[in-house]
Specification:
This protein is an alpha/beta fold. The protein is 26% helix and 29% strand.
Length: 135
C-alpha cells in the first residue's frame, strides 16, 4: 500500500512504495491557492493507480485546507477532467484549460493522467557511461 506525504520543505507530495520514493507532485503556494506544477513517477513504478492516488491526495488535502487548485500540471488537468467532483476546487478561469489539449502531444483517443506524468529512470539514463572525475 503506497504512503503519500506532504513534504512542505520541498513543496512536494511524495509517494512511497515499499519504502522507496516512487514519485511526487511538485507544487507552489500562492495565497489561498496551491499551484500544481508537475508530477514525476519512477519508471519502475509506472502505474495509473499510483498516479491517481497521488493526485487524489493533493486534491483532498486542498479541499480540507480550503485551497483553490491551479492545475499547471497536465496530469492534474487530465485527472480533474476525468473526475468532475473535483472541478469545484479549480478556479473558474481555469475550467476552459482543463479540456484544452492543443499544447499536449497529439495522441489518438482520450488521454489519462499517466500519459502526462514525467517518468524518471529512463533506459537512456541508465546506459550513460559515467564521466571520470578530473584529477
Amino acid at each position: 500500500m503506497p504512503v503519500i506525504e506532504n513534504n512542505r520543505e520541498e513543496f512536494q507530495y511524495q509517494l512511497f512504495e515499499a519504502g522507496e520514493l516512487a514519485g511526487y507532485v511538485q507544487y507552489r503556494m500562492s495565497g489561498n491557492e496551491i499551484w500544481v506544477l508537475y508530477s514525476c513517477l519512477a519508471r519502475n513504478f509506472k502505474s495509473p493507480d499510483l498516479v491517481s492516488a497521488l493526485l487524489r491526495r493533493v486534491l483532498e488535502d486542498a479541499h480540507f485546507s480550503r485551497l483553490a487548485v491551479v492545475p499547471f500540471c497536465p496530469a492534474m488537468r487530465a485527472f480533474v477532467e476525468g473526475h468532475p467532483q473535483y472541478l469545484c476546487l479549480v478556479p473558474p478561469s481555469w475550467h476552459a484549460r482543463l479540456s484544452d489539449t492543443t499544447h499536449w502531444e497529439e495522441k489518438s483517443g482520450p488521454t489519462t493522467p499517466l500519459d502526462h506524468v514525467r517518468l524518471t529512470g529512463s533506459r537512456r539514463a541508465r546506459l550513460r557511461v559515467p564521466v571520470p572525475a578530473a584529477t
